[in-house]
Inverse folding.
């Protein structure tokens, strides 16, 4: 093989390798961006939502069950007695609890409205929290 052919072969091989790496990275990013919530399918009772933290028992990739928790305060806000995306809800909410169904997990609390009265409100954290190898993770890029 001539020196020119060897260089062309090396250049083509390098391009194929780089293109493959880019495609793999794009696939991984697409899979990661599609992960939006759904922790209740791989986590089990007992759950606890107290003092603004959510705690549960979740399955790892190897099938072990581990206790894990996540602070919801950096992700949820109180706007006039409604829990919405944002941060700092623990400052104006109290009496934390939850309601669970087969498809949702509502973190609930009594939150202060603008008029000072309390409103029982909730936020479906199952739309934002996933189980990442036994760890509760807030999925930031899940729609609006």
């Amino acid at each position: 093989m001539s020196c020119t052919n060897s260089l062309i072969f090396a250049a083509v091989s390098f391009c194929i390798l780089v293109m493959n790496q880019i495609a793999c990275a794009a696939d991984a990013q697409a899979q990661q961006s599609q992960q939006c919530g759904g922790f209740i399918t791989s986590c089990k009772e007992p759950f606890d939502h107290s003092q603004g933290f959510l705690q549960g028992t979740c399955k790892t990739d190897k099938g072990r069950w581990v206790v894990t928790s996540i602070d919801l305060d950096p992700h949820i806000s109180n706007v006039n007695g409604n829990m919405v995306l944002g941060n700092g809800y623990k400052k104006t909410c109290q009496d934390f609890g939850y309601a669970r169904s087969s498809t949702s997990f509502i973190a609930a609390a009594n939150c202060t409205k603008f008029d000072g009265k309390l409103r029982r409100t909730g936020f479906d954290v199952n739309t934002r929290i996933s189980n990442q190898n036994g760890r509760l993770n807030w999925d930031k890029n899940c729609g609006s």
